[in-house]
């Protein structure tokens, strides 16, 4: 893909998979690039980004979680570039992003797609010239994402998946460039799989409640019994988001 280059941060974990995917977007022979999600504070990673980017005209954040945005301000100083994000407090020398906004840097066009759910400030970026959608943590290259309660809302996430279903069809999206994991060339089926997964999890939560589970922890033990203990905290976030969606208050929240 000529306009999008992956520079992966050295922060692998059960939550970040192989590490955070920083995307460098640049038209051939143009002076400046757009850098999406500089990732954690890591001077070696910053240098790798600069080597791939050359000049940087703009830094974009898919959302404010530390594995994507912790190093953004430091990288902005290195790159001498502004930062734009949905959340105003994450911005630097620039305005917050707006849904459906078109951004142009040295001939490169990117469209903003507001996609709350994983977090309230989540956004995706459409790169029309490549038929590519940069999805941050809204859709991953492998596995499923977390609805990060209390900031993330399941109702928002389900609406976002419907929005992405329409966008993929309307704009001929051919490839997903995620915030973690491998690139995917099956965007339509990937969105459908994510929607089906959420429906299945909700059914499992409803069944757990019907069978006597009262607390979020009890639901986690039933619905996410096969999840590694190192990421049970994230499963609990998703369960709390699902209980909120169902109008159920957990005594252990």
Fold and architecture overview:
This protein is an alpha/beta fold. It has helices spanning 43-53, 66-69, 72-79, 154-170, 187-210, 216-223, 232-246; strands spanning 4-8, 21-25, 32-36, 55-60, 83-84, 102-105, 108-114, 123-127, 132-136, 175-178. The strands form two sheets. A five-stranded mixed beta sheet has the order 1-2-3-4-5. Strands 6-7-8-9-10 form a five-stranded mixed beta sheet, with no helix packed on it. Helix 5 packs across helix 6 (216-223).
Task: Please give a quick description of this structure.
The chain has 253 residues and is α/β, with parallel strands linked by helices. It has helices spanning 43-53, 66-69, 72-79, 154-170, 187-210, 216-223, 232-246, and strands spanning 4-8, 21-25, 32-36, 55-60, 83-84, 102-105, 108-114, 123-127, 132-136, 175-178.
Total strands: 10
Pattern of helices and strands? EEEHEHHEEEEEHEHHH
With strands numbered from the N-terminus, the spatial order across the biggest sheet is 1-2-3-4-5
What proportion of the residues form beta strands (DSSP E)? 15-25%
Estimate the helix proportion, in percent: 25-40%
Please supply descriptive tags for the structure shown above.
253 residues, alpha/beta, Metallo-beta-lactamase, Chain A, 5-stranded mixed beta sheet, globular
């Amino acid at each position: 893909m000529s306009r999008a280059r992956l520079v992966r941060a050295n922060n692998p974990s059960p939550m970040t998979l192989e590490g955070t995917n920083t995307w460098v977007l640049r038209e051939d022979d143009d002076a400046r690039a757009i850098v999406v999600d500089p990732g954690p504070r890591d001077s070696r990673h910053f240098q790798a980004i600069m080597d791939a980017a050359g000049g940087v005209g703009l830094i974009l954040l898919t959302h404010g979680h530390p594995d994507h945005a912790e190093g953004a301000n430091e990288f902005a100083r290195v790159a001498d570039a502004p930062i734009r994000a949905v959340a105003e407090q994450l911005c630097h020398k620039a305005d917050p992003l707006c849904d459906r906004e078109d951004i142009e840097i040295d001939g490169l066009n990117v469209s903003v797609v507001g996609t709350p759910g994983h977090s309230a400030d989540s956004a995706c970026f459409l790169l029309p010239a490549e038929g590519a959608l940069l999805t941050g943590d809204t859709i991953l290259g492998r596995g499923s994402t977390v609805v990060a309660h209390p900031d993330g809302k399941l109702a928002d996430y389900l609406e976002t998946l419907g929005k992405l279903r329409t966008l993929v069809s309307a704009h001929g999206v051919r490839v997903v460039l995620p915030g973690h994991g491998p690139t995917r060339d099956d965007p339509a089926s990937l969105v459908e799989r994510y929607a089906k997964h959420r429906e299945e999890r909700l059914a499992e939560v409803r069944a757990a409640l019907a069978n006597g589970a009262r607390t979020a922890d009890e639901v986690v033990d039933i619905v996410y019994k096969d999840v590694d203990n190192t990421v049970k905290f994230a499963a609990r976030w998703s369960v709390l988001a699902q209980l909120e969606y169902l109008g159920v208050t957990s005594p252990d929240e």
